[in-house]
Amino acid sequence: MRVLLISVNKQKSYRPVLPVGMAIVAAQARQAGHHVDCLDLCFETEDQLLIRQHVTATTPDVIGISVRNVDSQNFLEPTYYLPFVRQVVTWCRDLPHPVPIVLGGAGFSQLPREIMAYTRADYGIAGFGERSFPHLLEQLAAGNSPVSIPGLLRWTGDGALEEESIDVAVEYDDIAPVDRHDYDSRYFSYGFQTHGGDQHCVEPVQTKKGCVLDCIFCGNFRVEGRSITLKPVERVVDEIERIAATGGSGFEFVDGVFNLPLPHALNVCREMQRRKIDLPWSCQLNPGAVTEELGDLMAATGCRHVEFGTDSGSDAILATLRKNFRRRHIMDAHQLVAARGLEIVHCVFVGAPGDTPETIDETLTLLEQLIPPEAQVGNQGYISLGMRICEGSELHRIALTDGTLPKNATLGIPRFYVAPGILENPELLDEIERRVTANAHWYLWWGLPRISLKERVTQVKRLERKTEQLYRQALQDRNHDGH
After folding, report:
1. How confident is the model at residue 168 (pLDDT cuts 50, 70, 90)?
2. Is residue 461 part of a domain?
3. Which of 103, 289, 350, 379 pairs as cysteine with 124 (C-beta 3.0–4.6 A)?
4. Considering the domain boundaries, does residue 176 fall inside one?
5. pLDDT category, 169, cuts 50, 70, 90?
6. In terms of domains, do 247 and 359 share one?
7. Which of 125, 150, 170 is the last residue of a domain?
8. In angstroms, rounded to a whole number, what is the distance separating the alpha carbons of residues 310 and 345?
């Protein structure tokens, strides 16, 4: 079959992100014998015209739409992406020769039923699209009504939505490598600013699927299941050597956490060292699994930048979040990495379940110790007010239990958990704003101090109500016109 895959992610702040999911699915569909073209809308302005031109040129039998994110996942900077996804689906339906439309991607997998109802696409694939999408193409090519495909969502004749269970694992031996040509070359020339100066995108490298952690706020289990599958070390480093051989300026380990399981991360770094890899790279680290050997290997193989999922400076809150580390581990891991000259970012939450003015003070005090105003350029503290509520997570249950989330609330629009009492405490909000704006290396919201944190919270609550009204109206309109 002829397939057109469209990546609808257009966000370029804090930096543009390559459409890894689309590229992986494209490679698997080609391996199965299908002709695949990719269209990335990230750098485009005339989206509707471009889609029409690509459809005319490629005459696809199926159109797949990759949804990377539902929203910006930032309480203070809420940006909602699903209206654009719905618009793209509408454009694809209005083409002279309409074809089946299939949704997929990490964002879609988080809320598959809500997104199907909102967009009225023909099919959806939650979870591992690299396995299920070729199966869907095979059944469509045979003229069959698709069934028994892991993660598949489809409409029945009476308008009900059926959903298959998601695969729990994927075998890397069966996965074809990504074709670099599926990435728009503009990713690698586009410049963006960080605290470390001018930067460019680098290629992504993944070492595994899944995660060994069970954090209460994470919804990744809806994307990759609750098990973990390790990519063979040799294959990981083969990818890195290919990046170096084709002139890549660096790479990023895009695992949610690179250093868990620790033995796998160590083996990857050892193999990189054995092959004399010295290409700049970055990763996300868990503070509870940083050793001297890991630090030495990372520095020796070209690591320049790490991002810690620090989450809180309070042991009580870390325990509530079900983290595998405590405050002392954060400090030890920071010192170990800093001693090797790497740039460090610490990401923390304010307003997690159980947070109080006292525990928030612990978090900000720790951040002041780790990223003080005199910190070297490139080091940064990134603070999130609130936590995005993911469907089916423990945080979702907590929010329903303590009334933070109304019983009838939909997660089809961005919903955030902020511990009860935090947003209603003007003195605390003023104190948070004062401490954030006093440190040029910290980031909470770009509008501070021009707009106060108190005022911004009021604006966001008003915007959430308006977004929900528009969302529910769109659902009614879709149900009314039958599309």
Report:
1. low
2. no
3. 103
4. no
5. low
6. yes
7. 170
8. 9
Compute CA distances 129 → 4, 24, 104, 244, 337, whole Å. Answer: 15, 9, 7, 28, 36
C-alpha–C-alpha distance, residues 354 and 216, integer Å: 13
Is 173's pLDDT higher than 90? Answer: no
CB of 364 closer than 8 Å to CB of 435: yes
Asked if the structure places residue 239 within a domain, the reply is yes
User: Which token pair is 245?
Assistant: 């051989």
**Which of 126, 146, 170 is the C-terminal boundary of a domain?**
170
Asked if 154 and 219 sit in the same domain, the reply is: no
The overall pTM is greater than 0.85 = yes
Q: Do 417 and 290 fall into the same domain? A: yes
pLDDT at position 192 over 80? no
Domain count, the chain: 2
- C-alpha–C-alpha distance, residues 342 and 363, integer Å: 22
Residues 316 and 364 in one domain: yes
> Residue written as tokens 């909602």?
80
Same domain, 121 and 216: no
Decide if 376 contacts 206 (C-beta within 8 A).
Answer: no
Long-range Cβ contact pairs of 231-238 (< 8 A, separation 24 or more): 231/172, 231/206, 231/207, 232/172, 233/264, 233/267, 233/268, 233/271, 234/271, 235/172, 236/205, 236/207, 236/268, 236/271, 237/268, 237/271, 237/272, 237/275, 237/277
Structure tokens at 34: 């299908």
Same-domain check for residues 213 and 138: no
- What tokens were used for 315? 């042991």
| Domain identity same for 398 and 297 | yes
Do residues 157 and 206 both lie within one domain? no
Q: Which residue, among 274, 230, 201, 234, has the nearest Cα to 43 in the 3D structure?
A: 201
pLDDT at 47 over 90: yes
Find the domain containing 230 and state its range.
Answer: 202-453
Q: Is residue 58 assigned to a domain?
A: yes
pLDDT the model gives residue 8: 97
